[in-house]
Amino acid sequence: MANRVVEVGGAVGPRDVDEKAKRDEAQSSDVELPLGAQVESDLNATEDDILEAREMAERLTLGEVQSMMKKVLAIHESDPNFPSSMIERIKEFLGDDEIIQNPEKHAVLIEEMKLQAALITINSPYAEVRAVVDNHDDVTIPCGTLRAWIIGLGFSVLLAFINQLFSIRQPAISVQANVAQLLAFPVGKAFERLLPDAGFTLWGTRHSLNPGPFSRKEHMLITIMANVAWNYPYSNNIIWVQYLPAYFNQRYAGQFSYQIIIGLATNYIGYGMAGIIRRFLVYPSHCVWPASLVTIALNAAFHNDKNTPVKGPFGKIFTISRIKFFGVTFAAMFVYFWFPNYIFTALSAFSWLTWIAPDNLNLTAITGFNNGLGINPWPTWDWNTLLFDNTDPLMIPFFSTFNKFIGMLISGFVIAAFWYTNTYNTGYLPINSNRVFDNTGSLYNVSNAVDDRSLFDPTKYEAYSAPFLSAGNLVVYLMFFGIYSAVVSYAYLYHRHEIAMGFKSLIRSFRRGSGGGGGGGGVDGSGEYQDVHNRLMAKYAEVPEWWYTIVLAIAIALGCVAIACWDTYTSPGVVFYGLALCALFVVPIGVVKAITGVEVTLNVLAEFIGGSFVGGNALAMNFFKSFGYVTCSHALLFSNDLKLAHYVKIPPRQTFAAQMAGTFVSTFVSVGVLNFQMNQIPGVCTINAPNRFTCPGINTFFTASVLWGTVGPVKVFGRGGMYTWLLAGFPIGFVTPFAVRWAARRFPRAGWLRQAHVVAVFYGALSWAPYNLSYLWPAVPIAWLSWVRLRRSRLAFWSKYNFVLSASFSSAVAVAAIIIFFALQWPELRLRWWGNDVVNQGCEGDPCVLRHLPDGEYFGPRIGEFH
Q1: What is the pLDDT of residue 28?
Q2: What are phi and psi of 171, to 5 degrees?
Q3: pLDDT at 866
Q4: DSSP state of 81
Q5: How many H helices and E strands in the chain?
Q6: Closest by alpha carbon to 575, among 519, 627, 649?
Q7: pTM above 0.85, yes or no
C-alpha cells in the first residue's frame, strides 16, 4: 500500500525492475552513487517513495528544510530504527554554516536534504512503515457500518466464550484476534454478496446492511473489536482463588454482581490510561508499534488490488500478489505445523545433542531444550517456538532481536556459574525452573505456611521451610529489578524530548478542550514534529480527553465499590496505589514497546511492592497486582489498537466506540461462562474434573499469590532475607543506560553502540525460566536475513512480502493448532513412536540436579534460624 506512488510514476515493468536492481548492486560498490541512489541508500527508500517526494522537494526553501531537519535530529538522533547514515548526513548539513552562505557550492547536499525532508513530510520516516501503511486516505470509504458491527460483536462473543471456557483446561487453548481477522474477510465478503441494500437514516446519515464492497476500514474495525475481546478479564483469576473451597473459600465471589463489577473495573481502567497517553505513544511517528505492521500487512493483502513486480533474491522477478503470497505461505505453514506439533514433536524440541546421552547431567544442563540452558546450534524446526514472547523475527527489528539474544546469552553464563558453584543452594534444584521449592528440593507447599484462612502462620512457616529459587529464577528476578530502573533512566536519556512534547500537547488539549492529535505541517507551532498520518487523521473528529477521563473515573469507582462492598479484606486504596504504579511506568514502557516490540511487564514489581505493602494478605496483593500490572498492560494493548486505527485512518470516535462495545460484550460473556464453570462443571479445578478442567493456571496463580502476598517479599528479599542481594538489580539497571550513553558519545564512530538497546538487553536476560536460548537463538539468523540482508539489497521485495509472510505464518500456526486441539488432543489421540517420545527421555523428561541430599536431610538455613 505504501507504494501507491505508482500512480505518479506509472506501472513498473520488468525493465524498470532490472534497472533498479543495477542501482541496488551499485550501492555496495566503492563508486560514487547518483543522487537518487544515494537517497535510496541513506533513507532506505524505494524508487517509488523518492518519486513521490520530488514534487514537494522542489517547493521547499532552505530555511524550511533546516528547521525540519533540526527537529528530525532532535527526535531521531538516538532512534535505532532510523538509518544511521541519514543522521550523519543531517549532522553534516546542519553543522556547516557555509551551506547557508553559499548554497550554490553545496547543491547536491541541499538537494538531497530537500528530498529527505519531503519524504519524511509526505510519508513515514521508516521503511517498515512505508512498506505496509498507506500515506493516502479516502474519507468516503465506509468504516463503522452495520455489518462491521455485527461481525465484530459476533467475533467478540465467540472469542470471549471459547477462551474463557478452555482457559481452565490442561492444556489450555486460546483463539486470538489474528484468527478473527482471517475469518472476518470471507464473512464480510459473504455479507457483501448476500445482504440487501436495506437500512435506515439516522441524524442525516444512512446506515445500510450492504453499503457496497467490504472495505479495509471495516475489516480493521472488526479486528480491533476482536483484539480487545479475545482475552478474558484478569480479575477472573482472583475470583477463582476466592471462590474455590481449596483456596480462600469466599462463597460471595460466586455472585454475578461482584464478578461483573470487578471485571469491568479491571478491563476499562486501561482505556482511561490509553486515551490520556495517546500523545506519547500513538501520535508520534517514532512510535512504530512493530506488531501493528503485521496486522496491517494482512489487512492490505486482502484489500490491495495493486500488484507491482519486484526483483527478489537470485535476480528473479516476483509478480505474485500479496494475497496469493499469503495463501501459498499460509497453506505451506498449515501443513508443515502438523509435523512439529503432532506427528514428529522432536522437531519442535530438537534437543538432538541430549539424545546422544539422555542421562548425562552436564550435557542436558547446558544443551537441553526442556530442562537446560538450550545452548544448541539449531534447537527447533517449529515456527511457534519463536513466538514464545508474542513476537517473531520478521515482525520486530533486527537490533531488537539481537539485543535480546545478547542479554540472554550473557545471563546464561551467570546462571551456569550460580548452579555449578551451588550459590544459594541452587545445585540442589533444576538449573532453569520457574517453580518455587522448599529445603528438600520439592515444590513449595504453601499450605504448610498458612492457616485455614490462607493467612500467614509464622509458627508453621518456621517449622517448614523458606522458599528457594532455581539458578535461572534468581537471574530472572535480578534482571526484572534491573529492567524497571533501566527503563526509567533509558527513557530520560533517549526520549525526554519526545516525552516533554507529549506533556505540552496534553496540557494544550485540556486547555482547548480538544483531543486533536494532528496538525497541518511538518512541524507545528510548539516544535512538535507532525508526520503525514497525523495530518490525514486531523480530518476526523478526535475523542476528547474528558471522554477517556470519564471512563477512567468510572473504572476506578467500580473497583472501589467491588473492594469496599464485599469482604475482600482489602482497602480500596490498592486501586489508587496500582494506578500510581502504572502512571509512573506506562510512558517509558510504552515508548520502548512502540520502538522495539519488547514489552516490559509490571507483574514482578507489582507483586514485590504489593506484597511489601500488604504483607500477610494474599488477596490484597492480588488486587494491587491487578490494578498495577493489568492497568499498564491493557493501556499498552489499547494503545496498539489506537495506532492501528491511526495507520488505517479509522475515525477516532468509531475506534473508541468499537473498543468500548467489544470490551463490554466480552466481559459479560466471560463472566457468564465463568459462572457456568463454577456452578455446572462437577469437581472443577480438581484432579477429578471432567474433560481435564483441572485449572493449572489458577493453581499457579494461587501459589504465587500466597507466596508473594502471604509469605511476602520482605522475608525473601528484605533485610535478613536469603535473596536480599538481588535488589542490586535496581541500581545496576539504573546506571547501565548512562554507561552506554557515555560510551556512545566517547566513541562516536562505534556505530554498533547506536544499536545497543539497554532495555532490550535486560529483557533478553530475564527471558529464562522456563524458556532458554533454544527459543531465542533461531530468531537471530532469520531476523538478520530479513531485516539486514533482504532489506538492504532488495528493499522493494522486502517491503512487499516481509510482513505478509509474518502474518501468514502466525495465522497458519493458530488455525492448525485449533484444529489439532479439537480433532486430536481433545479426544486424547496420540502418536506413540520414537519421534514423539525422545523429547522426554532422561533428564529432559525429569529434570536432574547437581547435588543430592542424604535421606532425612535438608539444605539451607536450619529450622528455627529463619523467620
Answers
A1: 39
A2: -80, 155
A3: 81
A4: T
A5: 39, 6
A6: 627
A7: yes
